[in-house]
Amino acid sequence: MRDGHSVVTSYGSAAGELAACVRAVGLADCSQLTKLLVEGPPAQVRDLTFQLTGSWLAPGGAASTAAAWWCAESTGRTFVLCEPRCDNRVRAAIAAQAARRPGVTVTDHTAGWATLAVVGRRTSEVLARLGVYGDSGDPREAPPVTRHCCDGEAATWLLQSDDEAWAVLPGADAPALWRAIERTGQPWGLCAVGQEALARYELMRRSALPR
């Protein structure tokens, strides 16, 4: 249990799973993430997002703050994803802004929706084969937030970087998408990874950033 949620710490060897992310690609269940959907008149939702992120998000745009990822799925519809430890702060900030804007609603999908993470050096190759980047297969031409259907399972994808992406979808559909990603990633050595490997990989990435 972490922050009130049951998570997979590892599938047997956190060190081996970290190595998979460094050299190939890992697939993780991150469904413990808080998932809030902000909907309403497009201008109101866009302004609310600007007040809390400092960014004007067009459909398909994304913004990252210290506490959350903001994903503009379409006009008037924005997903907010955050770690459970930031949950109260993010909820309070959104609720305060939404209360000032008629027609804006905030729906909690944390329990009913899943988040799958594809992480590691070969992430872009796996996503290109899945078709997440579109017909070109070029991550530079794909918006940060995109809807894509893999083997009949539609998800909203947040393309965070070349080596990490999250797929958000109804929990009942997540096992089928997991299997589709697993099959597609086999040529690149994809394996299931737990939260310990993800945390260590994130620390490695941060230490490698220029200061």
Helix and strand layout, with pairings?
Elements: H1 14-23, E1 26-29, E2 34-39, H2 42-53, E3 62-64, E4 68-74, E5 77-82, H3 87-98, E6 105-108, E7 113-119, H4 123-130, E8 145-150, E9 153-161, E10 164-170, H5 174-185, E11 191-192, H6 195-208
Parallel strand pairs: 1-11
Antiparallel strand pairs: 1-7, 2-5, 2-6, 3-4, 4-5, 7-10, 8-9, 9-10
Helix pairs in contact: 1-6, 2-3
What's a concise summary of this model?
32% of the residues lie in helices and 29% in strands. By secondary structure, it is of the alpha+beta class.
Structural class of the helices, strands and pairings? Answer: alpha+beta
**Largest beta sheet, briefly?**
6 strands, mixed
Q: What is the radius of gyration?
A: 17 Å
Number of strands: 11
Order the strands across the largest sheet as they lie in space.
Answer: 8-9-10-7-1-11
**What is the multimeric organization of the chains shown?**
single chain
Number of helices in the DSSP assignment:
6
Percent in strands: 25-35%
Please state the average pLDDT score: 94
Morphology call: globular
Identify low-pLDDT runs. none
**Helix and strand run:** HEEHEEEHEEHEEEHEH
Q: How much helix, percentage-wise, in residues?
A: 25-40%
Distance between the amino and carboxyl termini:
34 Å
